[in-house]
Specification:
Blueprint: H1 27-32, H2 41-54, H3 57-79
């Protein structure tokens, strides 16, 4: 038995599929964070893409700003490597600091 064919295309609303509206980062969740999210080029690109696809210019600009901030942080870290060097890892002698002789 063949499935019934429809001569016109039916668009199915997402609510009919049991999929509600997509909730991104809400203002209340952002308010509960202790620190702002670290700028990331990849996350910024995804936010920009989401804004572009949804037609939301404010979201798109937020993504562009995040990519710009991440690039500025990378540039600063490259120009000032001494500020971002951590202690050497893998040594158990970090417990006992070196004595100056």
């Amino acid at each position: 038995m063949a499935a019934p064919s429809h001569s016109h295309s039916q668009s199915v609303h997402p609510d009919m599929l049991g999929v509600g509206p997509i909730e991104w980062d809400s203002a209340t969740e952002r308010a509960h964070r202790r620190y702002p999210r670290k700028a990331s080029t990849i996350h910024g690109w995804l936010v920009k893409l989401r804004g572009t696809l949804s037609g939301n210019e404010a979201t798109r600009r937020t993504g562009i700003r995040e990519m710009r901030d991440a690039a500025a942080i990378r540039k600063y870290k490259k120009q000032h490597p001494e500020q971002f060097r951590g202690r050497p890892k893998g040594s158990v002698f970090w417990i006992f600091p070196r004595r100056s002789t």
